[in-house]
């Protein structure tokens, strides 16, 4: 079993992923900027992913306490809703600092430790929005497209080190993120109209796919993005 790091673990998707990896037998370290992460699992870190120093501190401490990191799940993301013409440079930079640069910094720190133990698995959480776009979320959508591209680039470069890099692209899961919509009933109907499966997915179903990609059963899978959207997006 490996040491796993899950970012953005205070939210429902990150929490489910962390608990699933722990149930799989991994030693799991969780992080979030929200102090609620301390209620998820024992090895919790309050981390601002905009801070390279925070990220380095977490990975160094996790290495010392739990052993070299063999699994990373890049899950943390922010999603301010602003019409494109009103997005400021500061807002754009902030979203990219968390959702894109944060993924890159965590992947770099994890890969250095994975190289110590002969390999590992990185799973980046992307989003189905990167395929169809989404009004008022241009900064977020751009970072999720970057997550898919980063996944392929790292899979190519880190493969010789036996580090596998894949992405999971969730559809519309019923999480706190949906609080950005003024009419929840209308949004729920819209989601079900788009999906092939006429029900909402659960965080545990997403966590199961992450578990597969992080585990030995996916030992020959790298550079892939798996859609988990109930058939909203088909690739």
CATH level-4 homologous superfamily: NAD(P)-binding Rossmann-like Domain
Radius of gyration: 17 Å
Order of helices and strands: EHEEHEHEHHEHHE
Average pLDDT metric: 92
Largest sheet strand order: 3-2-1-4-5-6-7
| End-to-end Cα distance | 32 Å
Largest sheet: 7 strands, parallel
Which spans of ≥5 residues are poorly predicted at pLDDT below 50? none
Question: Would you write up a description of this structure?
Answer:
It is a single chain. The protein is of the alpha/beta class and 235 residues long. The chain has one domain (3-228): Rossmann fold (3-Layer(aba) Sandwich). Helix content is 44%, strand content 17%. The protein is built from seven helices and seven strands. It has helices at 12-23, 52-66, 89-116, 129-132, 138-158, 184-194, 203-214; strands at residues 3-7, 27-32, 43-46, 69-74, 120-125, 163-170, 225-228. It has a seven-stranded parallel beta sheet, with helices on both faces. Helix 1 (12-23) packs across helix 7 and helix 2 packs parallel to helix 3. The mean pLDDT is 92.
Note the topology.
Blueprint: E1 3-7, H1 12-23, E2 27-32, E3 43-46, H2 52-66, E4 69-74, H3 89-116, E5 120-125, H4 129-132, H5 138-158, E6 163-170, H6 184-194, H7 203-214, E7 225-228
Parallel strand pairs: 1-2, 1-4, 2-3, 4-5, 5-6, 6-7
Q: Any key phrases for this structure?
A:
alpha/beta, Rossmann fold, seven-stranded parallel β-sheet, 7 strands, 17% strand, globular
Brief description of this entry?
The protein has 235 residues and is of the alpha/beta class.
